[in-house]
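It is worth pausing here to work through a concrete case rather than discussing structure prediction in the abstract. The textbook approach is simple: state the sequence, then state the predicted structure, then interpret. We follow exactly that order.
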Amino acid sequence: MELDRRELLTELGIFVVALRGFVACRKLPEAGPDTGASLDASKPAAAAPAWKNGDHALLPMQRAVLGAAVARILPTDRDPGAADADVIEFIDRELARPEHSKMKDAMVAGVVALNRNSQRNGVKSFTDLKPEEQDQVIHMVESGSERGKDFVFMLVILTLEGFLADPQWGGNKGGVGWAMIGYGPGTVDGETPTHDHFYP
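Step two, the predicted structure:
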């Protein structure tokens, strides 16, 4: 039986916060020498600048690759997807937080892995691949190592969180995620309110 994405996202939304806590506590594996980023928690991290709302962590190329990847995690079909909700904006802001420095390292290492595997298709960047080819590359990264599996796991969690989080944090643009699952902020019964002042 085909799963209805609205129903699935509604149920997954319940677990996003718990899963995010699991990701934050999970020990990240050390990145290999080809990634340019160490994920070893035993090594001191470079001092991060003071975080303020609106900061961004990713370089333009990194943001473009991760944006394309999250668009494949939650593609647009009859319902809005990650691109419509501007999930990459949420991820970019979250990775700028000092407490998420290890997660940022993992995401940047994932960008390297996606582009490296894209080269097998004769292109330089993941963003230049067709959607079905991007799906194949994501699967290759996920199945290639524990580090790759962790990267895709975190990418899925961040995508869901950005799709369903409060729009003030950058994702869920226009409240499209909430509207899709029938949720309205401040309501008890889950009905979406008629006013739209919650949504930037």
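Step three, interpretation. Helices lie at 5-25, 60-73, 87-95, 101-118, 131-144, 146-164, 176-181. Residues 1-51, 188-200 have pLDDT under 50 and may be disordered.
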